[in-house]
Amino acid sequence: MVGGLGSAIGWFAGQGDYWKSFENFLIILGNWIAPWLAVMLVQRFLAPSPDGEAPRDFGPGFAAWLLGLLAAVPFMSQPGVFVGPIAEGHPALGACAAAVAFLTAGLIHYALTRNGRTRADTSTDDTTQEIPA
Q1: 117 or 111, which is more confident
Q2: Beta bridge partners of 78
Q3: Within 13 Å and on the Cβ side, how many CA atoms surround 51?
Q4: Alpha carbon separation from 9 to 12, 82, 100, 118, 127 (Å, rounded)
Q5: Distance of CA 81 to CAs 20, 22, 25, 32, 38, Å?
Q6: Exposure string (b/e) for 96-110, b if CB count within 10 Å is 16 or more?
Q7: Strand pairing partners for 82?
Q8: Are 110 and 47 in contact (CB under 8 A)?
Q9: Model pTM?
Protein backbone atom coordinates (compact mmCIF):
# COMPACT_ATOMS: atom_id res chain seq x y z
CA MET A 1 0.00 0.00 0.00
CA VAL A 2 2.78 2.43 0.92
CA GLY A 3 4.69 1.52 -2.25
CA GLY A 4 1.61 2.14 -4.38
CA LEU A 5 0.99 5.48 -2.70
CA GLY A 6 4.65 6.49 -3.14
CA SER A 7 4.54 5.50 -6.79
CA ALA A 8 1.39 7.54 -7.39
CA ILE A 9 2.86 10.61 -5.65
CA GLY A 10 6.12 10.18 -7.59
CA TRP A 11 4.25 9.90 -10.87
CA PHE A 12 2.23 13.05 -10.19
CA ALA A 13 5.32 14.95 -9.02
CA GLY A 14 7.24 13.85 -12.10
CA GLN A 15 4.79 15.41 -14.54
CA GLY A 16 6.25 18.29 -16.48
CA ASP A 17 9.94 19.07 -16.79
CA TYR A 18 11.73 16.20 -15.02
CA TRP A 19 15.21 17.72 -15.18
CA LYS A 20 14.06 21.07 -13.76
CA SER A 21 12.32 19.26 -10.90
CA PHE A 22 15.45 17.20 -10.27
CA GLU A 23 17.63 20.35 -10.32
CA ASN A 24 15.30 22.05 -7.80
CA PHE A 25 15.47 18.97 -5.58
CA LEU A 26 19.28 19.01 -5.64
CA ILE A 27 19.41 22.72 -4.80
CA ILE A 28 17.03 22.19 -1.87
CA LEU A 29 19.11 19.22 -0.75
CA GLY A 30 22.28 21.34 -0.89
CA ASN A 31 20.66 24.06 1.20
CA TRP A 32 19.61 21.44 3.76
CA ILE A 33 22.85 19.49 3.93
CA ALA A 34 25.24 22.46 4.23
CA PRO A 35 24.19 23.46 7.77
CA TRP A 36 23.92 19.79 8.77
CA LEU A 37 27.50 19.21 7.62
CA ALA A 38 28.70 22.26 9.54
CA VAL A 39 27.08 20.98 12.74
CA MET A 40 28.61 17.52 12.25
CA LEU A 41 32.11 18.91 11.59
CA VAL A 42 32.00 21.25 14.59
CA GLN A 43 30.71 18.44 16.80
CA ARG A 44 33.43 16.08 15.60
CA PHE A 45 36.48 18.35 15.55
CA LEU A 46 35.88 21.52 17.56
CA ALA A 47 33.48 20.59 20.34
CA PRO A 48 33.76 16.88 21.08
CA SER A 49 31.99 15.67 24.18
CA PRO A 50 34.18 14.48 27.06
CA ASP A 51 33.00 10.87 26.77
CA GLY A 52 33.47 10.78 22.98
CA GLU A 53 29.78 10.12 22.35
CA ALA A 54 27.71 12.27 20.02
CA PRO A 55 24.65 13.83 21.67
CA ARG A 56 21.44 11.99 20.93
CA ASP A 57 18.91 14.73 21.64
CA PHE A 58 17.60 17.87 19.98
CA GLY A 59 20.06 20.19 21.61
CA PRO A 60 22.33 22.89 20.27
CA GLY A 61 23.00 20.98 17.04
CA PHE A 62 19.37 21.04 15.97
CA ALA A 63 19.00 24.71 16.91
CA ALA A 64 22.17 25.59 14.97
CA TRP A 65 20.99 23.61 11.93
CA LEU A 66 17.60 25.31 11.97
CA LEU A 67 19.11 28.79 12.38
CA GLY A 68 21.54 28.05 9.54
CA LEU A 69 18.62 27.16 7.29
CA LEU A 70 16.75 30.30 8.26
CA ALA A 71 19.80 32.50 7.64
CA ALA A 72 20.09 31.11 4.11
CA VAL A 73 16.46 31.80 3.12
CA PRO A 74 17.06 35.40 1.97
CA PHE A 75 19.90 34.16 -0.27
CA MET A 76 18.03 31.22 -1.84
CA SER A 77 17.49 31.49 -5.56
CA GLN A 78 15.34 28.88 -7.25
CA PRO A 79 13.42 30.61 -10.03
CA GLY A 80 9.95 29.15 -10.32
CA VAL A 81 10.09 27.86 -6.73
CA PHE A 82 11.42 30.57 -4.40
CA VAL A 83 13.71 33.57 -4.69
CA GLY A 84 14.75 35.28 -1.47
CA PRO A 85 14.81 39.06 -1.12
CA ILE A 86 18.61 39.37 -1.19
CA ALA A 87 18.92 37.03 -4.18
CA GLU A 88 16.19 38.98 -5.95
CA GLY A 89 17.91 42.31 -5.41
CA HIS A 90 21.43 40.98 -6.04
CA PRO A 91 21.23 37.86 -8.26
CA ALA A 92 24.96 37.14 -7.91
CA LEU A 93 24.45 36.47 -4.19
CA GLY A 94 21.84 33.78 -4.89
CA ALA A 95 24.53 31.14 -5.25
CA CYS A 96 25.87 31.65 -1.73
CA ALA A 97 22.85 30.34 0.21
CA ALA A 98 24.56 27.05 1.08
CA ALA A 99 27.72 28.86 2.20
CA VAL A 100 25.69 31.21 4.41
CA ALA A 101 23.86 28.23 5.93
CA PHE A 102 27.14 26.37 6.50
CA LEU A 103 28.91 29.28 8.18
CA THR A 104 25.93 30.33 10.28
CA ALA A 105 25.19 26.83 11.56
CA GLY A 106 28.86 26.10 12.27
CA LEU A 107 29.45 29.31 14.19
CA ILE A 108 26.22 29.00 16.19
CA HIS A 109 26.87 25.36 17.05
CA TYR A 110 30.42 26.15 18.12
CA ALA A 111 29.23 29.06 20.28
CA LEU A 112 26.47 26.99 21.89
CA THR A 113 28.59 23.93 22.60
CA ARG A 114 31.59 25.93 23.75
CA ASN A 115 29.53 27.91 26.26
CA GLY A 116 27.60 24.84 27.33
CA ARG A 117 30.75 22.72 27.75
CA THR A 118 32.48 25.47 29.70
CA ARG A 119 29.63 25.67 32.18
CA ALA A 120 29.30 21.89 32.40
CA ASP A 121 33.04 21.34 32.83
CA THR A 122 33.35 23.88 35.63
CA SER A 123 30.31 22.61 37.48
CA THR A 124 31.46 18.98 37.47
CA ASP A 125 35.13 19.73 38.03
CA ASP A 126 36.19 18.91 41.55
CA THR A 127 38.63 21.65 42.47
CA THR A 128 38.73 20.85 46.15
CA GLN A 129 41.71 18.83 47.26
CA GLU A 130 42.00 16.95 50.47
CA ILE A 131 45.00 17.72 52.61
CA PRO A 132 46.54 14.59 54.05
CA ALA A 133 46.54 14.51 57.84
Answers
A1: 111
A2: 82
A3: 4
A4: 5, 22, 32, 48, 61
A5: 11, 12, 10, 16, 25
A6: bbbebbbbbbbbbbb
A7: 78
A8: yes
A9: 0.70
